[in-house]
Structure formats: structure tokens, C-alpha cells
Amino acid sequence: MIYVIDHEDSFTYNLVHLLENFLPTYVSNYYDIDQNKLEKSKIIVFAPGPGDPSHYPETQKIYKKYKGMKKIIGICLGFQQILYGENGKIVPQKKIYHGYQSKIRVLDSSNLFSSNKVFVAGRYHSLKLKEPYSSSSLKITMRCLETNVAMAVEDTINNVYGFQFHPDSFLTIDGKFLIQKIIRA
Questions:
Q1: Of 12, 106, 127, 176, which one is least surrounded by beta carbons within 10 A?
Q2: How many CA atoms are closer than 13 Å to the CA of 47, on its beta-carbon side?
Q3: Are 102 and 50 in contact (CB under 8 A)?
Q4: What is the pLDDT of residue 165?
Q5: CATH code of 49's domain
Q6: pTM for the complete prediction?
């Protein structure tokens, strides 16, 4: 089962519909976690939402508890949640990317995707990872061709993955493929 933590975003159920193609999926709000179902889940997904990761301390506790024990996937705010949990600083961007389509390039650091492959992705965020950033196991694996902003991370040791963009958006080409690669990793 996939457990989706909803941060009250309008995209959450687009993401849920995408995930349901792979495994049964359960959704709850970040403030109303079903501990029993969370324990039984195979994958935890931190869904998009407003604000920044510091607004969701319960999600951070879940990240710390289950990192390395269950597969964790973060989308948009969820991507930022992962980086925040790994001492990354999340800061405002100069330009807001809401409903913006970008070309995203895969880096050599990716274990899941072919190096230099370019995806077209839908972006809906005003925050980004402040760089330089380094981690012993969490690797930046995709960047925006236009802005060079970090767009994906992988930690194959702890089974943690994230996208700053929305694979569930109609603006993302091959979104189902992107999610499938992580679920099957």
C-alpha cells in the first residue's frame, strides 16, 4: 500500500490517481495520520502543499522515523520536505513557477534515469533548494535547463526520492513513467 500524506493541496488527488495505477493507495491529511495504516504501508508519499516545510513538523517526524525503513517519495512541497529533513535550506526563487512547463535534464548522478535525458515537466513552486548543498547519500539528479534549479533527488541507500515538479500534472510528459521508475526501484 502507498500512504499519501496530503498537505491540503489541489494536486493531491491527481497524484493519488496516478499512484493508484501501481498499488492500493490511502490518503490522509498531515494532521490526521492513521498510524496503523502508515505502519502497514510499503511506500510513503509526501504530497504537494502550500507554505514551506517548516509549517509541517508532523511530516518531518514521519520522515525522520521512516527514512531507511520504507520507500519515501516527495512531490513539490514533499521534495522540499525531504531536503529540509536533510538540513537543506528552502528559499524563495526570484521567479514564481506556477503552471510553468520546463525542460528538466537528468544528471550523471541518477541511478534510475538515463543520463542527459530531457523530460518536459510541470512546475508549481515559488521556493527552491538553496545551493550549494551536499549530502552523503542524497544526490541531486535532475536540474531545470533554463534555471539550473534542482528538480529531483535520489537516495538509493535509504530509498528516498523526490521531484520538485509535478509528475501528476498534464504539463508533465511521461509523468507515469517517472513515478513507475521510482515505485519499481
A1: 176
A2: 27
A3: no
A4: 97
A5: 3.40.50.880
A6: 0.96
